[in-house]
Design goal:
Heat Shock Protein 90; elongated; 5-stranded mixed beta sheet; 3 domains; alpha+beta
Length: 387
């Protein structure tokens, strides 16, 4: 069934054109009017009628020339035999199809030229018909102009559809580009935040190595030299990290001098949120443990973004923050009673940033509405490196 539909869609019009040409070829010898041709003229007119219809098979390659040729050939054949064209209903149908195609061409200039061809050729065919009446000079052209107008209207609708599809494709492309930019910016932001954590750890290592080296006796010169090399390598690594951070920082962006926050600063964050009018409650499940600084920072940022979304985008009045310390995982969750709308902060972060932070630690996250109202954001961060 699907294959039949595909064949009809692709070749149905072509089959109709061939059928019209065949009917006109058969109908010409069956004419009974006084102008009916005989002999070689009959074969010539039969071939001419077949060409009038069959030339429409070339409409895909020549969308203007093929239907224009149909009308021009019909006008020329009317000079040969005034009743030839008007006596065959198939040719009238082919003329209507050609008029529609001329109205449907993409070029306005060609469409207007096609309208002139339809009007002129129709008038010539009516004039050469020995049985024409005065009204035929008006009604016959109007009939085919109606076909041209239908094609012109279909062209306008097709252009609107294509324009809408192009706008949709462009919007989708812009969303994809914006998403890639948001991911890149958020990864850069995470890297800048983690720089302080890593730099602090390396600085402590360098200081401890230096302290140990200075306390070692002169008799262990070889070991002291090895520790000196480690200390110098650590200082070089810190210098390279500062250069890397400078490369990631935007033009004019100043370095952050305040220490990076963690779950230890969650009470201060909730106090700031409550000051804006959002009622926030905190529940801590399990026994709190010392978290790695980077993971502690990411957990704080996730909760911060969840509260920001509840405050700015969902229209919530109440929010619940849950922090669960497990044996292997840290679970953080923000639930609000808002309208369930989810967005970002307009700077390319939001859920994009949360997803990137969770991905770093091999965790998972979920975000969505509950029962059509309210929004829940939860993330699981493994406490151990799972690879």
């Amino acid at each position: 069934m699907f294959q039949l539909r595909t064949l009809l869609t692709r070749y149905g019009i072509d089959a109709l054109i061939v059928a019209v040409a065949a009917a006109s070829v058969v109908g010409t010898p069956l004419r009974e009017d006084a102008q009916r041709p005989d002999g070689a003229l009959l074969w010539l007119e039969t071939l001419g009628l077949a060409l009038v219809a069959l030339v429409l098979l070339l409409r895909r390659r020549w969308p203007f020339a093929a239907p224009a040729a149909t009308w021009l050939l019909a006008a020329l054949l009317s000079f040969l035999d005034g009743r030839l064209v008007v006596s065959q209903p198939g040719i009238i149908l082919a003329g209507m199809g050609a008029a529609l195609l001329l109205g449907n061409v993409r070029s306005d200039r060609q469409a207007r030229t096609g309208l002139a061809i339809v009007l002129s050729a129709a008038a010539i065919v009516v004039y050469n018909d020995p049985l024409h009446s005065t009204g035929d000079f008006f009604f016959t052209p109007v009939l085919f102009v109606t076909g041209w107008m239908v094609g012109f209207a279909l062209r306008g609708r097709a252009e609107q559809t294509e324009a809408a599809e192009q706008r949709a494709a462009l919007a989708e492309h812009e969303r994809e580009v914006a998403a890639r930019i948001a991911v890149a910016e958020e990864r850069s932001r995470i890297a800048r935040e983690l720089h302080d954590v890593v730099a602090h750890a390396v600085s402590v290592m360098v200081l401890q190595v230096g302290a140990v080296r200075h306390r070692m006796p002169d008799s262990e010169a070889e070991d002291r030299e090895a520790l000196k090399n480690v200390e110098e390598a650590g200082r070089a690594a810190l210098a390279e990290m500062r250069r890397l951070l400078g490369a990631m920082r935007r033009d004019g962006e100043q370095a952050e001098l305040q220490p990076q926050p963690g779950l230890g600063g969650l009470d201060a964050l909730l106090s700031d949120v409550r000051a804006t009018g959002l009622d926030v409650r905190l529940q801590v499940h399990g026994e709190p443990v010392d978290l790695p600084p980077a993971l502690d920072l990411s957990a704080y940022r996730i909760l911060q973004e969840g509260l920001t979304n509840a405050l700015k985008h969902s229209g919530a009045q109440h929010a619940q923050v849950d922090v669960t310390y497990g044996d292997r995982d840290l679970l953080v969750k923000v639930t609000d009673d808002g309208c369930g709308h989810v967005s970002s902060d307009g700077l390319g972060h939001g859920l994009v940033g949360i997803r990137e932070r969770v991905k770093i630690y091999g965790g998972d996250m979920s975000a969505g509405t509950e029962n059509g109202r309210g929004f829940t954001l939860s993330a699981r961060l493994p406490l151990r490196d799972g690879g």
